Amino acid sequence: MIMLGLTGSIGMGKSTVAAMLRRAGVPVFDADAEVHRLQRPGGEALTPIEAAFPGTTGPGGLDRAKLGAAVFGNAEARRRLEAIVHPMVRQAQQAFLAAARENRTAIAALDIPLLFEGGSHALVDATIVVSAPAHVQRRRVLARAGMTPEKFESILATQMRDREKRRRADFVIDTGRSLRVTRAEIRHLVSCLRRHGVRYCKSCVRSSSTPRRPVSTRRTGIASARSAASSLSAASRRGARFTRT
Ligand SMILES: CC(C)(COP(=O)(O)OP(=O)(O)OC[C@H]1O[C@@H](n2cnc3c(N)ncnc32)[C@H](O)[C@@H]1O)[C@@H](O)C(=O)NCCC(=O)NCCS
Ligand SMILES: Nc1ncnc2c1ncn2[C@@H]1O[C@H](COP(=O)(O)OP(=O)(O)OP(=O)(O)O)[C@@H](O)[C@H]1O
Prior knowledge:
Blueprint: E1 2-7, H1 14-23, E2 28-30, H2 31-38, H3 46-52, E3 57-58, E4 61-62, H4 64-71, H5 75-102, E5 107-111, E6 126-131, H6 134-142, H7 149-158, H8 162-168, E7 171-174, H9 179-196, H10 198-207, H11 228-238
Parallel strand pairs: 1-5, 1-6, 2-5, 6-7
Antiparallel strand pairs: 3-4
Dephospho coenzyme A binds at residues 10, 31-32, 35, 64, 67-68, 71, 78, 81-82, 85, 89, 113-114, 155, 158-159.
């Protein structure tokens, strides 16, 4: 089984690309969704969270805004919360991987916001980083209900820089372009991995002649005007090309 690690900073498009991977037949473990599940009314994380952060839970489950205000911007508090939640997430992740192996899944993916920060990149065969220009990221995140510039900045400050994530990535997916282009790029990547395996696809990236332009202007190996069907066959003819920064 090929195991992929999908990551990217806030608002870069992890969930959107995860949905594209699923549509391409790749089961995806969503760490953020698991966190939310653990924090729902009746969720396993609520009791230890209430003990560590009194007044942040109630009959409706977790007061996300209150806990967020307590931990984003306070590294010690954030680490205390992570020490409660992350082991539970890892357990669910193990169960997902065991099921994927049992089902003889060819490719599976872990969507983990803190993939590099938490060391889970060591578990996977290849890492995918979703990335868009900073102004696009900011616009997307500030459009969310309940988000403020201060909260955005404090979350961003807790995460590894986008530039560093891109540097570490095996595959960089530029989500600053249209959904259609990104979808085609994901299909190419999955198709390359299915046909040729991880080593070949990684070596395609390394040998790519795609110019390494800034994220905002570079083309990431998929011609935007091409239809998904024809780009797929073109990709299999020449081997898909993806950028690595
Ligand atoms: C503090 C909480 C309750 C705030 O909830 P809220 O609904 O306001 O934010 P949400 O969960 O949607 O996350 C917003 C953004 O922050 C990122 N984020 C969440 N936790 C962290 C963290 N510990 N470090 C860095 N980024 C984080 C998310 O990936 C997302 O990009 C929640 O984020 C939480 O429980 N975080 C701890 C668990 C965690 O580490 N999750 C991320 C990796 S599994
Ligand atoms: N080419 C693209 N690829 C991915 N997302 C895109 C693209 N173009 C626009 N978007 C939009 O950007 C937003 C990305 O949000 P998404 O929830 O996927 O990010 P995320 O990285 O999972 O965020 P978070 O870190 O907060 O969980 C979505 O509203 C999506 O529709």
